[in-house]
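User: Second chain of the day. Same drill as before.
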Amino acid sequence: MFRFWKCGLNLACLSFLVGSWLNVQAEDAVTIGTGDEGIVVKIGREEFTVFHHGPQLPKPYFWPVRGPGGAILTRPIDPNEKEHPHHRGIWLSVDEVNDIRFWAEKGRIITRDVKFSSGSPGTIQLINDWMGIDGTPTLIETTKISIYPNRLITYDTTIAPPAGKLARFDDTKEGLFGIRIAQSMREKEGGKVVNSEGKKTTQECWGQPARWVDYTGMVDSREYGVTIMDHPGNFRPSRYHVRDYGLFSISPFGEGAYQNDPTKSKPVILDDVTPSIRLRYGLYIHQGNVAEGNAEAAYEQFLKIAK
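Assistant: Same format as last time:
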């Protein structure tokens, strides 16, 4: 305040103060706009990610996804990829919906409508049609994606069959909300996995419910991490599909598969009695290990905003 008073009517000084304030705002803002490759998301002046959608794609997804400083934390997309080519950046899909394997891209998810806005958070709102073999939607997905300046992404998704139709989700480990991390971050390359309950390694965390799981590894000689978060308000606790080769996802649709016990399978049916399901998940990109990245604080942030 003293400095502002000393400036008086000095326009150069006033301009400096206003410019500084605008610069702080620019650093904090999430800006979203169209680009050559898709919908471009920036945090401050850095590109964070690009959202890809369109009738030529098997599903919508974010790629690449960058950590602070610009390091790419997702595996490259290579048209000649032989190992799980359907693992594209960050995405949402699942197999065994009316026997259609959307996760494996045997069924198509087409974005019918998309709206976006900049701010803190920036938002992308989608209506996606999960197409059946008859060429009509099997599911209609309505999702609001919120992206915060600290690189927390939240998904608030409602899925429902069209009026008068039924959708059955059979038990599978292939789903639902996931990321394919950079090859150098993988556990088999020295990456570390830990969950909110104190379990460590992919072997201990795989198939387990938890508030969050964090996967940390090296990219360009610096340590980065990805935290995936479950919401306590979802219709049942989700389980984590976290692998040493770099797949990292969460799903509520694999009770039997994730416990290696078919007798524990709990298929989900959406019909006139249960017409829809709402699911909320968070994904947090951070620098440093799980403690340095403040994963627990990001989870508390997620709980406050994903109501």
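Residues 1-25 have pLDDT under 50 and may be disordered.

User: Great, on to the next one.
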